[in-house]
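re: that chain from earlier
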Amino acid sequence: MCGGRKRQQRGFSLLELLVVLAITAILTALLFPAFAKIREDAQRVVCSSNQRNIGTGINMYANDHNHRLPTSDYAHEGKPQEMMASHRGGGDPFAWEGLGHLYIMGYCGNNICFHCPSHSNIHTPDRYHQHYNNADGEEPIFTNFHYIGDWDWKQDRFNRLTEGERLPLVTDGLRTAADYNHGEGMNVLRADFSVIWYDDVSGRVRRLVPTDVEPEGHADLEDTYAELWDVFRGSR
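^ sequence. v structure.
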């Protein structure tokens, strides 16, 4: 028979549990921004890759269409705010617009390439998936990327791929402030088919983007979007 006294087992006190919980909360708060940055960096890479796929599609389209860019009726009509659209809606199954021509002609066969994983507004791939397969509804289809179009409404001439890195073709959404995909900048596809990151920490682009959808024929919109594209023309 063992004569030793059995040791009493002791659990954590309430104070010790509170201390552990507090330390866990502090560590989580310290690490969360790092995790968020890693996630955003990964999403930027996917966004950049999608724009490169669009660039490949534009290149193939141009080779088959006398070196012209995909047609944008909105560019010819002086409606630059709407050039995130890939289909104009209105019940017309043939009303493909801008980058939408790449989809319907098979140059970008998966509509996921028109979307950015950092987008947090309503223009998600899931929302429009069925619309791409049955584009005869009233609702327009919007991508997460803004297209400069085949027509320069300020210079009254066609945009040309021969402008190379001087011509931005596609950037992240500029239709409204809610379509601004990344917090401090955006990917920009240029006519040499390179993709660069434009750093907008100063908020220069964000301040120019309209806060809401403006009425058709809004007098300042053409000037606003010409200024936005000029910002990217000057970036290196």
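The chain is about 35% helix and 10% strand.
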